[in-house]
Amino acid sequence: MVWPMTAVIQIEGLRKTFRTFRGGARVALNGFDMTVEAGQVHGFLGPNGSGKTTTLRTLLGLVRADDGHMSILGQRAPEALPAVAPRVGAIVESPQFFGNFTGRRTLQLLARAGGVPAERVDAVLAQVGLRDRAGERVKAYSLGMKQRLAVASALLKQPELLILDEPANGLDPAGIREMRDLMRELSAAGITVLVSSHILAEIQLICDHVTIISRGQRVATGPVAAVLSGFDKGEYRVRVGDLDRAAGVLTTAGLPVTRNDDHLVVADVADSAWISEQLGQRGMWVTELTPITPDLESVFLQLTAAAPGPSVPRQVDDVVQPGPIDLGVQP
Ligand SMILES: Nc1ncnc2c1ncn2[C@@H]1O[C@H](COP(=O)(O)OP(=O)(O)OP(=O)(O)O)[C@@H](O)[C@H]1O
């Protein structure tokens, strides 16, 4: 199989079914595909239980796949993992640090265990912004600082690829912002970053590309802006004095119109000036004409929702699979 030279991670047709305690089967991955190109900060987004951790654990050889092809840095996984491991940093399980050690001591021990030169410790402490707090005990660190220490430990061996499972889990907005800045700095330093998350705002802030998984299948992928624009329905919010009359005019002209309390939502609008012209000609003066651009949250909900109503918890293991949506953005 020929894969693009720039693909740092390539996953095709990945399948994994877990046998449950009671002899049942739980489909975690159902033919999942993902491509992460060099230099990306790639968000791996999906609801709880959609298969993100299973994908990362399978990629890193911690879980055996039932079927599919995977490569990391151009080498087949899991077979070639021992060869590529020195070039990959990963935090898939929350690392447990010894609280009585300082951050620096923790990294010194990890460096020694990994055969990494001791000078790397100060370099990674600086890289993750912990240099000034490196002499404090880890048990006094905030959650954000512990996450940074975890990232620092993964950076010790100067990886080309960093894989982080839910790095911003439990962080407050300021912590998420700091994590975003850190990801961007790592990306600027030439490291490809794959970040999994079920938090949309976090992915929109941190990542330039995204793959969305739902029930073990990829449902969208591409640059964040392209994924969003694939869902742009050309909708405009229109405010005008007589909503009913305006709705009538626009509907007669063939545009889909939704009447809300104090405004209309008009879809399929190619030229917004045409709306003000049509209404103005009939003595209706438009006071607002605003494009409604999709955000990742609404796209995510559309893509991952075979969602039950709010009173019914999402059944992550439902058998029904949504059809994958090909945005044609990425192979
Ligand atoms: N070791 C296991 N044994 C049985 N089922 C498992 C196992 N690991 C994961 N699963 C199931 O596989 C599905 C996917 O789980 P996974 O942890 O990959 O999802 P996730 O997207 O990482 O979710 P979260 O955001 O909650 O971490 C879930 O239904 C989960 O219960």
From TrEMBL:
Residues 9-240 form the ABC transporter domain. PROSITE patterns: ABC_TRANSPORTER_1 (PS00211), ABC_TRANSPORTER_2 (PS50893). It comes from the Bacteria. One of its GO terms (molecular function) is ATP hydrolysis activity. Gene3D superfamilies: P-loop containing nucleotide triphosphate hydrolases. Coiled coil: none annotated. Keywords: ATP-binding, Nucleotide-binding, Transport. Belongs to the ABC transporter superfamily. This is ABC transporter ATP-binding protein. It comes from Phytohabitans suffuscus.
